[in-house]
Amino acid sequence: MFGTMIRQIQYGAQMLRGGRLAVSGLQGTVADLRATIEEFGEPGEEAAVMLPGGTEPDPQIQRTMADRRLKLTVRHAAAHVPYYRHLFAELGLNPQDISLDTLALLPPTPKSALRAASSAFVSVRSEPVLLAQTTGTTGIPTSVWFSQYELELAAALSAMSFLMGSALRSRHIVLSTISSRATLAKLTVQRALAMVGAGFIAMGTVDPRIIIDRLATPMRLPGKEPQVTHLIVTASALGGLVQTAERDGWDPADFGLWQILVGGEVLSDPLRSRAEEVFGAQVTDTYSMTETMPTAGLACEEGHLHLSAEQAHIEVLDPLTHTPAGPGETGTLVVTPYTQYRDTTLLLRYDTGDLVRRLPGTEPPTCSLRGMPATSRILGRNTNGPAELTQRAVLDRLQGERRLPLPTRYAVSPGPDGPRLYVVADRPSAALLAHVEKRCADLPLSGVVLLEDPDELPEPCRVRADLTEHSFELPSPRHQPVRSAR
Amino acid sequence: MSQLAQALTLLAALAALIALAALYLRRVRMPRPPVGRFVRSDIAVMTVTLVSMPPIYLHLPRALTACAFGAVFLGACSMALAPVVGGRRGAAVTLTLGAFILTAHLAGWVPARIAAGDLLLALAVVGVSNLWAQTGMTAGQVAALAGLLAPYDLLATGLTSVTAQLVHHFAGMPLGPMLAVNDGTSPIGAGLGDCLMLALWPLVAAKAFGRAAGWCGAIIGLCVVSVVLTGPVAGWVHGGVPLLTGLGPCIVAQYAYWRTRRGPERRTVDWRGTAVEPSTDPFHEQDVAVALAIADQHRDAGWLAVAEGRAVGHALSPGGARRTAREAGHTAVPVVVAVRPHGTAAKANTPGGSGAGQSALSRAVGGGADAERIARVRQSHTGAGEVAAGEWPRNLG
Ligand SMILES: [Zn+2]
Description:
- The complex is a heterodimer.
- Chain A is built from 13 helices and 17 strands.
- By secondary structure, chain A is α/β, with parallel strands linked by helices.
- In chain A, helix 9 crosses helix 10 (269-279).
- Chain B has two domains: 3-29 and 40-271, no CATH class; 288-379, no CATH class.
- In chain B, strands 4-3-5 form a three-stranded antiparallel beta sheet. Chain B has a two-stranded antiparallel ribbon with strand order 1-2.
- Chains A and B meet through helix 1, helix 2, helix 8 and helix 13 of A and helix 2, helix 11, helix 13 and helix 16 of B.
- The structure holds zinc ion (ZN).
- The site of zinc ion (ZN) has 8 residues of chain A, from strand 9.
């Protein structure tokens, strides 16, 4: 009790100061939280105040805090990060002049800059210990270096949100199908779950049939539920799982799943409900990216994306003009992670390229996460196509059609009289085309084309489920065991 | 009032206090901080505080100590009342009680002041003991505290004059740390620490070991009080008697008794009956090693679901085996094990076969997983059924 109190006072003081956080104190708080939950079954009343979004902080205080953290971050980056040292000199900007009100003086950092020279963003004062490369589907991976401090901090914060937000307990078993090369996600989740005491299975992105089989497999372990209770998966891989489970006739009773945490890609509403139906588990949409770690977003019951404002300064900017998007307007998420959480790869106004729509009107949301700033859920990547043809708009329409294969593959390409939608179908037919056309009637399309072969798409449609990892678990025609036995 | 009447009044008051605390524990759920529970270091901090405070009181002006105690008691009292009558009404009642005590003190209504002061102290003790019990203080921790305070009380009350000085210091003071039955002229009375331990132990004992332990704790506590009171009543003793010196070992002994009899203490979540863990074993006690032995008797390669000592499902994949069991109507979760290729299991069972021999064998056939594949191929060679690659999880045996 006294120890917990002292740690919380220390944490509060560190948060106010804006300096480095004591990781051991945070780990201690996680242990306290776990002990509390083990003794009482749940955290105490008002535990939600400890979570981002649990309180409705005074806007003035929030602004003052954001200003302080932002100034510290800008000064640190301008002094110790080669890219920003150069940028400030070139623009003739004084880092002391940058504050919350004058942040617009600083141009956003494009993804291409980080891709081209990741070491230019590494603080000369840091000790990089881990290179995390994104498994993005757009070609050159983005490389981000991390320090031990950042990794431990992210794990402790993650453990806290697992315990409080997801109600994860030591009796749970978590299976992740995130690519084995997504080092950061895998490491952080493993460390966080170990603090929680939950079981962790890192399967990687293997064949959906193997994943489903593993989800159904009973495990007789002391103090654990008999089957996997939580699944971490990308949206496209979830598509593959849903399709396999639906096709092979699996029943929710075959699984012991409670929650499916989806991230990395746009999760459409029809896919979410299909997954909830076939797996009998609650599906939660999350948002996080390697570059802006540990900033995380969570979709609420009203369909907003809520991003924690404690770990980063978040803006929604017009993709072209880089001016703030107005209420109801679409823009890209531009994130400045604070130095309190990041000391190695520092990014100022990092343009994530992820499109969101600002909530219309000035009324604050009334949902359960109202304390956290909210936008629409991610609409998709910023492309040059028509604004209405976002990835979410297309997927919301296509993934409700059960005769189309999952993960959904499509491309939008300019036609003579407007954009055309090319969709991959297993067995294209006139009837199916009519169905798809009806679903997409409200989109500004000049036509829909069904294709049997994904290679025929006018541009490749890459999804994270394509990062398939080989496994010998499934007998495949190319590894005919008959030959090895002879 | 005679010494005997005073002693009986005190005994009745303490019994009422214990009963009130127990009733409060059963009926009222106090708010808890979001994170934190009682741990061992808290007991150390409390002991150090309790031991170091009395000498400090003696050097503070009486008015200041009275104010400090008053603030603590009023705070604890309103904390206890808040979950029962609401925060605002609780505070109002507490302040009224405090104002009455002060008025009675200034007006010289001694019996009224004593009664109201005792009521305030009792409510504060009910609040604090419940706060501790409900924030996860364990019986072991209370026993440790009792064990530490017993020799201290002997030293402070029995062997030195610290307590006597304190009683003298607080005599006639409103809001003093005593459950008093007189105006401080006779040694009959119970200190704040005594009241707390008497009320607290039955609560944590009941929480940790059940109601019988709680009842025993209350009765034994009151017996100790009766024995201790015999001294002054019979005129054998003229100063204060160290109650905790007697009560401490009794609490430690009770803890040792229940701990050996009932095993580990119940957690708060078990005591409240709100534990979410499946209380029954989903596998219905099916042993994995036994399941493996059953699978070794099975003819077909693949995976076997075993429940209640027999095979209930078979498939070429572990999840498939669970599924066939479910489809066959087995609601219990089966234990799923692989059917080992014939030979590997048998070898291990032969008298001459050692563990090393078995691992050499599995190396010879290329490890467990490969051996299984070969077995599957052999099966298809003998015409037991070709396994189509795409049908792996669907082929449900
Ligand atoms: Zn919301």
